[in-house]
Amino acid sequence: MTSPADADTEVVVAPRPRPRRGVSLGDAGPPIALVVIFAVFSLLSDDFRTLGNVQNIMDAAAVLAVVTCGISFVLMMGSIDLSAPGVMGASAIAVSLLVANNRNDNAYGLLGVLVALLLGSALGCLSGLALVSLKVPSFMTTLGVSAVGLGLATLMFAGVQPNIRDDMLDSWAVQRFLGLAYLTWIAVACVLVGWLIQRYSRLGRYAFAIGGAEEVLALSGVKVAPYKVAVFTLAGTFYGLAGVMVTSQLSAGLVQAGKGYDFAAITAAVVGGTLLTGGRGGILHSAVGVLLVTVLTNGLVQVGVSPYWQGGVQGLIVVAAVAAAVLPQRRRNQVTK
Amino acid sequence: MTTPVLATPAADQAPVSGGPTVGQRLTSFMPVIALVALLAALTFADPDFLTQRSLTAAVRTSAPLAVLAAGATLVVLCGGIDLSIAALCSLSTVLFAMWLPDLGGLTTLVVIGAAGLIGMVQGIGHVVLRIPSFIMTLGGMSIFAAVALVISDAGPIRIVDRDATKWLTLYVGGIVPMSFVVAVIVVAAISLVLKLTPLESFVRATGYSESAARLAGTPVDLVKVAAFTISGACAGLAAVMLVSRNFSGSPTMADNLLLPAVAAIVVGGTAITGGHGSLWRSLAGALVVTLLRVGLPIVGVSSAWEQILYGAIIVAAVALTLDRSKVLIIK
Amino acid sequence: MTAQTQVNALEVNALEVRGLVKHYPGVKALDGVDLVVRQHEVLGLAGENGAGKSTLLKALVGLVRPDAGEIWVRGEKVRLRSVVEAADHGIGMVFQEQSLVPNLTAAENIVLGSEGPGVRRGIYRWDTMRKLAQAQLDKIGSHIDPLARTDTLTFAERQMVEIAKVLRIEERTSHPPVIILDEPTSVLESKEIETLFTQVRRLREFASVVFVSHRLDEVLDVCDRVSVLRGGQSVGEVPTAGAAPAELHRMMIGSTGSDDHYHGNLAERSDEPARPRLVVRGLSGATFRDVDLDVHAGEIVGIVGVHGSGREDVCRALFGAEPTLAGEVTLDGDKLDLSGTRAACAAGIGYVPAERKIEGMVGPMSVADNMTLTKQKSRCSGPLVVPQKQATLVDKWIERLSIRTPHRGTAIQRLSGGNQQKVVLARWLVAGDIRLLLLDHPTRGLDIGARSEVYSLMRELANSGVAAVLLADSLEEAIGMSDRIIVMSDGRATREVACPAGGKPTPLDLVKEMV
C-alpha cells in the first residue's frame, strides 16, 4: 500500500468524506510552496513582481511543461525516461530541415512539424519496445535511445546549422495572444490534453495502475506490455513537439536543443509530487512542479544569482524531494539500488 | 522415523539443473571477442591501422575512459549506478587548473582526494537517505556541472605550469603511454585488493542479493559508500589525465565521456543488476569503445554514427548480461 | 456445455478435481488430490501448512499447471492456463494477499481487465463504470462508494471490493460461479468476520464457495462440508453438522503426529544454568508488544502462533533486522545492541531466514564463499584471505554436515534445498562462537530426508550448548523439537508450555492457546 498522503484529488470526486487518512498534505505541498516562493521573490526583487516578468516566467516554462507532460506518464508507471535530449535534438533538426530553411528548398510547414512529432513517437516507441521485449530497464534503454537520437540529429545536421525561414514557426515564439506567446498556449494545450489522457483514457489510467501494482494487472488478465510501449511512444511525441518548440524559439535547428531537459523535467515532476516508484502524481502535479522550477530559476536570477547555478539548484531540489518522499517509508533491510 | 545420524544422509534431491547458459558463456568472453573482431575489421579496412603508432595513440586515448569506467564498475558491482562520473571529472579538471598554481606537485593527489570525498558524500546520501543511486548521482551530475560552471566562469582555464602533469605524457619503453600504464595499475590494484581481502565477497554479495548480504552481517552500507568514494577518486584521476593532454581545465571537458564509460562497463560484460563482472572487463570494454571511436572514420563511417552505435551497444550489451531471474518486473 | 451434462443441472458438481498431482523440486506438493464442490454449497478446505492447500487453489485458478490429474467444471473437463481462462469457466479467487491496485478507484478495480461498456474506444466513461461497479457491490449489499480510491478503504472494505470483483465472472458464464476465498479472515476483526460470514452465506444463493481458513471453528461455522488435505492428499470429507474442531484437527494431523518428528532431547542435560543465556524483557515493536522470553544455553524454545501473531518479527528484531520501540535484551548478561545485524552477528547470534533463496543465501556465489560470508576472520590471516585456510575449513564442514555438493566452489544455487540450508546453517558455525541461533522456518520447502537431517543438526547444536529459538513449520515440528514452547497471539506472548522429552503436549493443546 502506498502512503496515506497519496490521495489523488482529481480521481476521487466522491461526495464521501475521507478524513480517515488525514488531509493529504502531499497534494497541497507543491502549490503552497509555489505561492510561498513567489511571495518571497516578490519581496526580494522589484523586477520579479512585474507583469512582464510573470509573462517571461510563463513563456520560459513552455518547453519544460511539454517535456514534463511526456515524462510524467513514464514516471507514473514507475519507469524513467532519459531520452528527451536525444529525441528533442532529432526532432529539432528534422523540423528545421523540413520547413523553409537555408539548407534546402523544403517548405512543408505544418506537415514538417507533424513529421518531427512522428520521429519523436518512433524514438519513444523504440525505448518502449526495448524495455518490454529485451527486458532492459528503462533508464538504460532510454539512455541508449537518447544517444541514437543525438546521432540521428548529428547525421542530419551535417556540419551546417539549419536556420529556419518559416513564418508560422517563427511566429509561434514571437506572436502573443492574451499576453502569452503562442508557444505558451501550445504548452497549456499539452497540459490539458495530458490531463484528459490521464483522467479519461484507458492508456492513462493503466499507466497509473502499472505504477501502483503491475502484477495485479497481469493477474486480472491485462497485458501490460502494449500499454508500456504506448506510454513511451506518447512521451516521445511530447518530446518531439518540445524539440519543434525550441527550434521555433531559436529560429534554428540545434543538435543540443534538448540538453538538460531530461533532468529538468524529472525535477519538475518529482517536485510536483510524482513518486519515482510510480503510481502517484499526475499531469497537474507536474504542471505545478514546472512552474515551481521555473519561478525558482527566474527568481534566483532576478535576485542576482549566477544563471550557471540553475542545474545545481535543480539537482539539490530533486535529491531533497526524493529524500523527503522516501524517508517516511523507509524500513530496515530495505534494498535501495 | 528414527534419528538419522549425520553421516548417513537421505537420498539426494535433484540439484537445480544447469551450468552457465550459452548467453552467459558468450558474455563472459564478450569484451575479448569484440576487441579481436574490431581489430580484425579495422585492419581489413585499413591495413595501415595495425601499426605501433596508431595502436599507441588509441591506447593513450582510452586511458581516462578506462579509469572512469573502472571506478564506476565498483558501484555497478554493488548493484547501483554512478551517472555523475563524467560531470565530476569535468569539475575535477577545473579544480586541478585552479589549484595548480598554489599547490604545485601536490595538486594531483589533492584533486583525486577531493573527488573521492565528493563521491563519498554521494554514497552517504544514497545509503543514509535511501535515495536510489541512479537519482542521487543524476542530481550530483547536475550539481557538479553547475559548480564547475560557476567557479570557472564557464570557460576553460589554461595551465601554464605543465611540469605537474608531464609524467603522464611520458611513454614506458618509448611505446606504452604512461597514462595507460597508470590505468592498468589502478585496475590491477583495486582488483588485487578485492581478491585478497573479504571485500570481494562483500561487494558481490551486496550486488547479487542485498538483503541476504545484510542478514549475513556483511557491512553493506560501508561497502557501498566505499564504492562511491573510489568511483569519485577515479573520476579525479581521469581528470588529471585529461588535463595532462589538453593543458587546460574546462567545466564540460569530460561530459561526453559518460555514455562511452557506461558502454565500456556493459560491453565488458558486467551485469547492470550487480554482482557479476570485474574491473578488468571494463578495461577491455574501454578499449573496445575507444577502437570503435577511432576506427569509424577509418572505415569511412561518419562520426555521427558513433552516438547511434553507443546507444545500440548499451541496450544490446545490457540485454545480454542482465540477470533476469533477479528482477521480476522491469521498470 | 455438452448436451449430456445438462440432464439435471443440480446433480452436476460445480467443480470436481480428480487425482491432481504437482511436483516441485524435491517436494510433492499435490499427490493425487480429489475434491468435489457441489452447486450452492460452501465447502471448507482445511489442512496444515504444507498440506498442499495453496498449490491446489493456484491450480484451480490457472496459476499452477498440474503435472497430472483432471479438473472438471460442471461435468466438463477443462484445462486452466491462466486466471482469465479460469474466470471464463466461472472460477474466481479472492487472494489472501489482496489483488487490488491501490491507486485506482474501487470501480476500476472491480471491472479491471473486463471493462465492457465502461470503456469505449479506449476512453473511460466514468458514469457507466460507476454503475457497473455499483451493480456488483449491490449484489453483496455493500455500501462502499465505487469512486473511492482503493487505498482509502479499510481492509474489510477492500475485501468486499475483491468479492465484488470476483463476482464479475458471472458476466462471463451463464452458470453459477465458483468463488474461492483464501484465508479471508486472517486480518479481520471479529465484527468484520461476522459481516464476511453473512456475505458468504449470501453468496451461496447464487454461487458455490470454497472457504479456506486455518481457524477450524470458523470453517465449521460457515461451511456445509469440510474437505481435509494432508501431505498433498485428500484424507476425507466431513459434514460440518455436529463435527467438532478436535475431530477435524485429528484428520489434519493424522496418525503421523509428533512421533514423526525428531525428539532428540532425550540426552541427559546437566542442571539448568542459573541464568538464562538470552533474556528478553518487554520487547515491543510495530507488530508485537511486551514480549518476555528466556532461553537457556542448550535449550530449544519454540514460538508458535497463527499468521499475524508477530513471532517472525520478534525473531528478526532479536537479530537487529527489525526496529524495536522498547524493551531490553541481554545475552549472557550483556546488554544486546539491537540497532543492526552487524552487532547481532558480532555478539554471537545467528539467523536462518525463512526466505532462504532471497534472504538466506547469495545464489550465484560459491558454497565456500557463502559459508564464510559472515565469519570472514575464519578464512583470513590479518586482512588477507588465505584460500588454503578457507578450503580446509569449508571442506571440514561439508564433510561434518554431509553437504552434497560437487565442489566447494560450486554456486550454492545449484545445490538442492536441504544442502543449501545446511550451508546457511554452517555459516554460523564455522567460527565456533555461536551462542544463540534464531531459526525462522528452517525446514520450509525441504523434503522429509533433508528435514530430519536439519533436525539432527539442530539437536546436536543444542546439546553442544547453543541456545536456539525455533519458528517451526508445523505444530508437530515445534513440539518435537522444542524443550519449551511460547505461544504468541496478536503480538503478545500469551502462554508458555513446557515440552519435556517425556511429556509432550498435543498439537490440540497448543491450538487452544493460539486462537
Q: What order do the helices and strands come in, and which of them pair?
A:
The complex is a heterotrimer of chains A (337), B (331) and C (515).
Chain A: H1 25-44, H2 51-76, H3 84-98, H4 110-134, H5 138-157, H6 167-174, E1 176-177, E2 180-181, H7 182-200, H8 202-219, H9 224-250, H10 261-271, H11 283-302, H12 310-326
Antiparallel strand pairs in A: 1-2
Chain B: H1 22-28, H2 30-45, H3 52-77, H4 85-103, H5 107-128, H6 133-152, E1 157-158, E2 171-172, E3 176-177, H7 178-196, H8 199-208, H9 210-215, H10 220-246, E4 248-249, H11 258-268, H12 279-298, H13 304-321
Antiparallel strand pairs in B: 1-4, 2-3
Helix pairs in contact in B: 2-12, 3-7, 3-10, 3-11, 3-12, 4-5, 4-6, 4-10, 5-6, 5-10, 11-12, 11-13
Chain C: E1 15-24, E2 27-37, E3 42-46, H1 53-60, E4 68-73, E5 76-78, H2 83-88, E6 91-94, H3 106-111, E7 119-120, E8 123-124, H4 126-139, H5 155-166, E9 178-182, H6 190-203, E10 208-212, H7 216-222, E11 225-230, E12 233-239, H8 245-253, E13 278-285, E14 291-295, E15 300-304, H9 311-318, E16 324-331, E17 334-335, H10 341-346, E18 349-352, H11 356-360, H12 367-371, E19 380-381, E20 384-385, H13 387-400, H14 417-429, E21 436-440, H15 448-463, E22 467-471, H16 475-481, E23 484-489, E24 492-498, H17 507-514
Parallel strand pairs in C: 3-10, 3-11, 6-9, 9-10, 15-22, 15-23, 18-21, 21-22
Antiparallel strand pairs in C: 1-2, 1-4, 4-5, 7-8, 11-12, 13-14, 13-16, 16-17, 19-20, 23-24
